[in-house]
Amino acid sequence: MKLKGIEFGKVLGASGTQGFFGEGYWFHRYLKPFGLNFDGMTFVAKTTTLNRRGGNMPLLGNFTPQELLPKCIHVNPWQGIALNSVGLSGPGTRALLVVNRWQMRQNPFFISFMSVAATAKERIEELTAFVGILKSYLRRFRAPVGLQINYSCPTAGIHIDDLFQEASEGLSVASRLGIPLMPKFSVVMPPKVAREIANHQACDGICISNTIPYGQMADRIDWQKFFGTQSPLEQYGGGGLSGKLLLPLLLEWLDEARRIGLEKPINAGGGILCLKDAKKVMKMADSIFLGSIAFLRPWRVARIIRAING
After folding, report:
1. What is residue 154's predicted lDDT score, i.e. its pLDDT?
2. In 10 A of CB 161, how many CB atoms?
3. Sign of the torsion formed by the C-alpha atoms of 156, 162, 165 and 167
4. Mean pLDDT, to the nearest integer, of 11-32?
């Protein structure tokens, strides 16, 4: 997938799969001998916010989780699904930039950002401030970097009807950076809205999709069947769904998006748990991203990356 002349490859990580800097999580080192190897996958940083945010996952001084098994993440490996309500825990943009680790990366990668203020005006102000901070550091980056603007996390609380206006204004603001811009959305958003956003002159590609907020798309997801009468993460707001239930929804979304003329490059993921899944997505997308497979089916990660890059 090439954006603004920069080759980002056919396989990207989901934002957060390898943490803020690519260091990964504690269990990665133990699963590496069994096939969890991210070589050949383009790094996408865990989504940051402008300011420090506690969220629901306490972090250590090195910005990795304090808890070995975070309480805000519910995993059902047998069903191939998970819920998470991390809540965008992080130290804030400036704290991540001053440690100089993004600047030292050698290969093209993405930084992911989300505004979390209560109103659209305030969220644009947050994005504007983020753009100003990042721009002041860009000349120090050794490798090309793109920006994934996250509009899909349940934490943001952006109403679906307001997405076009807010994303369009956000793209105009972020265009001051002069780097590839790729807004990220959930399959909850209609493809026709994504097409209109993709037509914005500052939009270089689309990333689809993030988790589905608990309880949404009830006509397609039998929430009670998989989780009972309420979310196991009810105390954290319900969480967002990832895993195999997303794949058919993703494929339908991609089919419709291409049918109605969304021509910009698409980075697609959600429910990819085996090579067959990845190949299905690649038929309609320009690249895939891998996320929850890293803990749901980790032994398949390296093979998928090699095969898709092959």
Report:
1. 53
2. 8
3. positive
4. 92
